Amino acid sequence: MDLGVGIKELVMVSNRLPVDRAVDEDGNVEWKTSPGGLVTAVEPIVQQLGCIWVGWPGDAGSEAMEPFDVDRMRLVPVSLSTEEVEEYYEGFSNGTLWPLYHDVIAQPEYHREWWDQYVKVNRRFAQTVAGQAAKGAVVWVHDYQLQLVPGMLRDLRPDLTIGFFLHIPFPARRLFAQLPWRRPIIQGILGADVIGFQTVHDAESFRECAETYAGAPTHGNLVMVSDALDNTRQVIAQEFPISIDTGQFAQMAADPDIQRRALEIRKEVGSPKKLLLGVDRLDYTKGIRHRLKAYGELLAEGEIDPEQIVLIQVATPSRERVDAYQLLRDQVEVTVGRINGDYGSLGHTPVVYLHQGFSREEMVALYLAADVAVVTALRDGMNLVAKEYVACRLDETGVLMLSEFAGARDELDEAILVNPHDIEGMKAAFLRSIHMPPREQKRRMAALRETVSQNDVAHWAANYLGSLAAISEQRSTVVDA
Ligand code: GDG
């Protein structure tokens, strides 16, 4: 990937550092790269460029930690107190912004104390970056937890080139309007030079909000931002759909050990004729309940034979201290228990439910084992699982069932599209996917694979960082002149 001469130094900023702390039997501390959307996406870029990464190490109330190195990354920890984790992270980020940005699927809570902590923690992040970044560095701030950082950072360090990427959807203006702090949030994001969204629609919604709440006129993808002295800056606000390291998934899918494991998985779940797979963080946006409802009805109606068909549902533990997530877990587990109680037998479990995290190898084995991947999100920024499944289907078999409300829908036309709110439509899509003739599978999967291989994560990063590099280069030319 050629990023030109524009980038002198790259600083990544995200709520969590991309590593987890592990202590071995002898008490030695080791840091391991952690799984998850963002890390999965940017790992290849970092391997190539190296970078500074500013983020929270993940344990509340711990003492301030010194920066440390892992692989090609210099990790700079930002400490959070227990109260800050509760109010900035679990509260404002996951109890206010997350539901609001996902179309109010759950009721957002608006608390002034949560907002105060959000401002305070965002300021700490901005100050940490300001203290670490070299002159003229490119800073890439990630996601909804840190929307005030671009603005704060621009005030502290006008020499930096700043990018902001939102991994989750940006809501329609009429929903965003609910947020009591809508103006400072928009102004904070507008501190960036390049603002990236997952879809065209998200970018449009943001630009409308920029006009309404920051009085910033727009021209196409540009937002004109004026400061107190009436100097105007052009900010790019457009879609940069994220993707995966397609080559790495394909390579793993070709590994004979992983292929053997895929066969083993099918045996372990009773050698069904068709194996269906859902992989999601256990989150109410992912539509797991809707999926199970449709699936349960098909079993009840005898449309699905539990001796022939198995659904594996991986539900990776997530945000377990937030009330809505505890409630969801209970609901999902009651439903799975009912389905298995009603339709299972000694040798057959219709829904194999796994509330666990797995290695990437095991994930690829699951993708290889599955005849149908089921993505039924009620709202999702992109959904990388959909792309990972496609990347692993080297032999062009398999069916992707994909929600119309996932960002991935904009690219993956040849999936079987579903509206997860339409239970009858979902049932029909399940049956269509299960019974799809091999020739149709091949035609669809070949087209899907073509899309995912062309637009991989390197392409995403090159586009995004390319835009930032161009601005950074322009700026240094002006300064040098
Ligand atoms: C956010 C946005 C957007 C899951 N369980 C395990 C595991 N995973 C990996 C998957 C995939 C990633 O985590 C999940 O990514 P998604 O895109 O599906 O969803 P979010 O976590 O909600 O991510 C989303 C994304 O950011 C990127 O911008 O697409 O819309 O919500 O890569 O494979 N990986 C391993 N073990 C697991 O148990 N190793």
TrEMBL record:
GO-annotated biological processes: trehalose biosynthetic process
Family to which the UniProt record says this protein belongs: Belongs to the glycosyltransferase 20 family.
Record's protein name: Bifunctional alpha,alpha-trehalose-phosphate synthase (UDP-forming)/trehalose-phosphatase
Gene Ontology terms for molecular function: alpha,alpha-trehalose-phosphate synthase (UDP-forming) activity; phosphatase activity
